Amino acid sequence: MNKGLFILVIILLPAILFAQNKADTVPNHENRNGPELKKHDDLAGHAFVFMFNASAVFYTSTDPRINNFLNKYGYTAQQKIPVGLRIEMAGIPFGGKMIYSLNAGTIVSKQDISTADVLLGIYRRFFETKKLWILAGVALGEHFDRIVLTGNMPPSLDSLAKKYNTTLSLRRNGFITEPAIKIFWYPLISKKFQLGLYTGIYYDLDFNSRWRVGYDPHNDNSFKNLRRPTNVSTEEEFGWVFSSGISICF
């Protein structure tokens, strides 16, 4: 496991274990206005509720420096509004208000950069009715980019490709943090599951590292870093992100 991601798990683990309160109920002897209050949703009585979310994601930030590089050497640069797919698995312990998630995403619009994001998130339901939930929270994780240099390239990289007689690639990664608000609407509810739609508004802060040049010696994605200067500029990417998709709880 990447060292930074391991540290992230250690930081979030105490919150996962101890921050969750049990389902909000008011005992009869403390409730002077009537009987015990119950949660709206039918799944609240379960010890643990699972969520699965799948969505299309629309990004508003790109890296103009790497786009200049791609355009200069005949590659396909990032689109003005890159479109991605995101899969999220989450849990709601004790039917409470806290939600803990793991999500992974990638950009699928046409470009010569392969991307991936992996994040762990903590959210809280601060508004809910029987069919509507509104959450707020933050996700932290790591961002990965890869460019395979199958076409033209700067002379310094071209000489490396000839020296090692292989196809080179550029890679970078970096820490990402993503505060967000999510809105869930569940028109279909039963005692065993809930099915609905959701939308999210996020603000991504991608702290990209420098580009590294290397190759895959066994064509198995085991990157060998040549530790040579690339002279390819990088830039941190900050911007709004919007998502829309389906959600199921069970």
Detailed description of the structure:
- This protein has 250 residues and is mainly beta.
- The protein has one domain (46-249): Porin (Beta Barrel), CATH 2.40.160.
- 14% of the residues lie in helices and 48% in strands.
- It is built from three helices and ten strands, in the order αβαββββαβββββ.
- Strands 1-2-3-4-5-6-7-10 form an eight-stranded antiparallel barrel.
- Strand 8 and strand 9 form a beta hairpin.
- It starts with a helix and ends with a strand.
- 25% of the residues are buried.
- The model is unreliable at 3-41 (pLDDT under 50).
Summarize the structure.
With 250 residues, this protein is mainly beta.
Set down the secondary structure blueprint.
Elements: H1 3-18, E1 48-59, H2 64-72, E2 83-93, E3 98-107, E4 114-128, E5 132-148, H3 155-164, E6 169-189, E7 194-208, E8 212-215, E9 224-225, E10 237-249
Antiparallel strand pairs: 1-2, 1-10, 2-3, 3-4, 4-5, 5-6, 6-7, 6-8, 7-10, 8-9
